[in-house]
Amino acid sequence: MSQSAVPRSTWSNRWAFILVTIGSSVGLGNIWKFPYMAGSQGGSAFVLVYLICVLLIGLPLLMAEILIGRRGKGNPVSSLLKVAEETGNSSWWGVLGWVGMLGALLILSFYSVVSGWIVDYLFKALTGFRVETAEAARQSFDTLLGNPYQMALWHTVFLVLTVGVVARGVVSGIEFANKTLLPCLFLILALLTLWGCVAGDMPAAWHFMFDFKLADLTPVVALAAVGHAFFSLSLGMGAIMAYGSYLDRKTSIAHTSLWVVAAGMLVGILAGLAIFSLTFRYGLQPDEGPGLILQTLPLAFSHMPGGGLLAIFFFLLVLFAAWTSAISLTEPFVAWLTERLSIHRPIAAWGTGLAVWLLGLASCLSFNWWNDYRLFGLNLFDTLDFLTSRIMMPLSGLAIAIFVGWAMGRTAVADEIRLNRHAFTLWLNVLRFLVPVGITLVFVFRIFGWME
Ligand code: PFF
Q1: How many folded domains does the chain comprise?
Q2: Where are the alpha helices (H) located in 341-379, listed in sequence order?
C-alpha cells in the first residue's frame, strides 16, 4: 500500500486527543437526539439503558477502535489492512474500513442538513424571532422543511464551515477548531443548566430523567437506547479510528476513552436537564420528538424573560457540537484520499465536501419535492439515517469487536492497550462475548421489528 511522503501528523498532546474525540462524540446526538429520544421513549428507562450500554458496549468498542487506528497509523482502510497483515489475518478486513468511511460520508450528508436547521434557528434567534403559540412554532418548522432553497442554503453554509476546518490539516485545522469550540460549548452548557435551575422546573426535569419505572422499560426503548449509544460515541464509522491514528504511543487508550465517555454522558444529561426544566416550566410536552429543540424550546424561549439571548446561546451550543462532530465524519475519507492517492489535503477536503453536498441536497428535497419517493415508507433522509445508524454502525461495531477480540491475537492487543492483567482480561472478555452478543441481539430484534 503506497503511503504519501508527507510525515503523518500527531496531536499536540494527550489532552488534544481527548478533546477532539469528545468533539466527535458530543454532537447532535447528545443535544438534539438524546433529549428527544428520552422524552419520547419513557424518560428515565431510556436514560438508564443508554448509560449502561455506553459503559458496557460503547466504552470497550471505543478503546478497540482507537487501538486499531493507533497501531495501523493510517486512514481506516490502511490501518485495518496493516494490522490485519501484521497479525496474520486476511486483507478482507480492509472492507470494514470502507464501510466506515462511506458510512461516515452518508451520515455527514444528512447530519449537515439537520445542522443547517440549527444554523437557520440561530439566525432567527439573532434577528429576534419569537413564536407565541405551539401552532406558530410548528408552522415555522414546517415552513423551513417545505422550503428546499432555504434548507440547501444552510446546509451549504454548514458544510463549508466543516470542510474549511478539515482542509487546514489535523493540528492547525481539526485540533485548533476543537480547542476553540469545545471550551465555549462547555461554558454555554453550564450557563444553560444554571439558567434551567433558576428559571426552569429542575426538580420535574430531574424526576423525568432519573425516576426509574420498570414498566417503562420495553424492548423498543432498550433497542433505541443501544442504538443511540453507538451513534453518540461515533462508533464504527472510522472517525475514531482516524483520530486514533494521530495518537502517540505513550498515551493510555483506556484513560482517554474514560474521559470521552464521561464527557459525552455529562453533556447529554446536562442538556437534557436544561431542556426539560424549561419545557416543564412552561407546561410544554417532553415527547414532541425531533421537534423538541426546534419547536418546543423556541416556544419556551419566547415566553421567558431574557429568552432571546438564551436562544442565541442555545443554538450556538448545538452548532458547535454539530460542527466538531461533522469534522470527524469528514476526516476518514480525506485521510484516505491524501494518503492513498496522494491528493493535496485541501483538494481532497473540498472534493469530499462537494460529493457530500450533492447527496445532502437530495436529503433536503426528500422533505418536500421528493417526499413521495419512498423506500419501505421512508423518505431519503430517513432511509440514510436508518441504513447508517441501524445497520452499518452496529454491524461495523460487531466486526471491530470480533477483529480486536478474536482475530488480532492477545499479544498485539495487550501490547497496544497496556492495561494491568485483571483490567485487560475483563476488557477483552467483554469485547469477545458481551459486545458481540449484545449487538447481535439488538440487530436481530431490530430486523424483526422492521419486518413486522
Ligand atoms: N457522535 C455524533 C453525535 O452524537 O452527534 C455523531 C457521529 C459523529 C456519528 C461521528 C458517527 C461518527 F463517526
Answers
A1: 1
A2: 345-365
pLDDT score for 148: 95
The contacts of residue 123 (CB under 8 Å, 6+ apart) are 154
Identify the residues whose C-beta falls under 6 Å from ligand 1: 24-25, 27-30, 104, 107, 231-232, 234, 237, 239, 325, 328-329
Candidates 448, 445, 450, 5; CA nearest to 225 is 445
Q: Which residue has the cell 441536497?
A: 361
The domain of 285 spans 14-447
Q: How buried is residue 394: exposed, middle or buried, by Cβ count under 10 Å (0-12/13-18/19+)?
A: buried
* Tens-digit pLDDT profile for residues 400-427: 999 999 999 999 999 999 899 999 999 9
Ligand 1: residue whose CA is nearest its atom 7:
234
Distance 103 CA to ligand 1 centre (A): 11
Burial zone of 339 (CB within 10 Å; 0-12 exposed, 13-18 middle, 19+ buried): buried
Within a domain: residue 237? Answer: yes
Between the CA of 330 and the centroid of ligand 1 the distance, in Å, is 11
Cα–Cα distance for residue pair 261/255, rounded to 1 Å: 10
pLDDT in tens, 91-119: 999 999 999 999 999 999 999 999 999 99
The mean per-residue pLDDT over the stretch 446-452 comes to 55
Within-domain flag for 430 = yes
Q: Please check whether residue 156 lies inside any domain of the structure.
A: yes
* Ligand 1 centre distance from Cα of residue 389 (Å): 10
Contacts of 354 (CB under 8 A, 6+ apart): none
Backbone angles phi, psi at 378, to 5 degrees: -105, 140
Q: Which residues, including other chains, have CB under 8 Å from residue 364's CB and lie 6 or more apart? A: 113, 116, 148, 151, 152, 155
Q: Note the pTM of the prediction, 2 decimals.
A: 0.93
Ligand 1 atom closest to the Cα of residue 264 is 4
Grid coordinates in use for 369?
Answer: 419535492
DSSP assigned state of 375: B
At 56, list the grid cell: 458496557
The DSSP result for 39-90, as a single string, is HHTTTHHHHHHHHHHIIIIIHHHHHHHHHHHHHHTSSHHHHHHHHHHHTT--
**CATH number, residue 290:** 1.20.1740.10
Ligand 1 atom closest to residue 231's alpha carbon, by position in its atom list = 9
Closest residue by CA, ligand 1 atom 12: 234
Instruction: Determine the distance separating the centroid of ligand 1 and the alpha carbon of 159, expressed in angstroms.
Output: 15
Between 94-126 and 393-402, two packed helices, what is the crossing angle to 10 degrees? Answer: 140
Q: How confident is the model at residue 48 (pLDDT cuts 50, 70, 90)?
A: confident
Judge whether 168 lies within some domain: yes
